[in-house]
Amino acid sequence: MDDLLVRYLHFIGIMLLCSALVVQNMLLARDVSTSIFKKLVAMDALYGLSAIVIFVAGCLLWLTVGKPKSFYSTNMLFQIKLIIFVSMAILSVVPTAFFLRRRALVKTEQVESLAIPHYILVIKRLELVLVLTLPLLAVLMARGVGL
């Protein structure tokens, strides 16, 4: 039963992360209104929260419930998947820091729109490309590839 609950939480986290990332990419532009910016901040918070859920549930699946630890630890595809996930987490720090700094500005000043730097757009697009590789790696792992 624990296995099912942890897997369920893992999948819910994945769906939320993907949804938040897609919404962020749909809302992002070179210049956004304050109302769109507030939505971007909310989606960034959801993205971070879902990444934490994925990480915790994934660690539980890896180390305590489900398949034996060696199934994951010795699989090269799992290691690649973990590297991609951690890379996404590191990349997401930059946009999150930008959103948090600008959020304070939006609260204190009357700003009608905000310019979004090009590097934020590039990072969010890169995260979207990286997240698309994870299901392929998961399917291959489930088939025993990489063992």
Element pattern in H and E: HEHHHEH
How many β-strand runs?
Answer: 2
The coarse overall form would be elongated
- Using only C-alpha atoms, the radius of gyration works out to 17 Å
Q: Unreliable runs, pLDDT <50, ≥5 residues? A: none
What's the rounded overall pLDDT mean?
Answer: 93
Class from secondary-structure proportions: mainly alpha
| Biggest β-sheet: strands ordered side by side in the sheet | 1-2
Number of helices: 5
How many angstroms does the end-to-end distance come to? Answer: 26 Å
The percent range for helix content is over 70%
Number of individual domains: 1
Q: What summary fits the major beta sheet?
A: 2 strands, antiparallel
Which percent band covers the strand fraction? under 5%
Structure at a glance:
The protein is mostly helical. It is 81% helix and 4% strand. It has one domain.
Structure in words:
By secondary structure, the protein is mostly helical. The protein has one domain. Helices cover 81% and strands 4% of the residues. The chain contains five helices and two strands; from the N terminus they run αβαααβα. It has helices spanning 2-27, 34-63, 69-73, 76-108, 118-142; strands spanning 31-33, 113-115. Strands 1-2 form a two-stranded antiparallel ribbon. Helix 1 (2-27) packs antiparallel against helix 5 (118-142), helix 2 runs antiparallel to helix 4 and helix 4 packs antiparallel against helix 5 (118-142). It is elongated, with a radius of gyration of 17 Å. The mean pLDDT is 93.
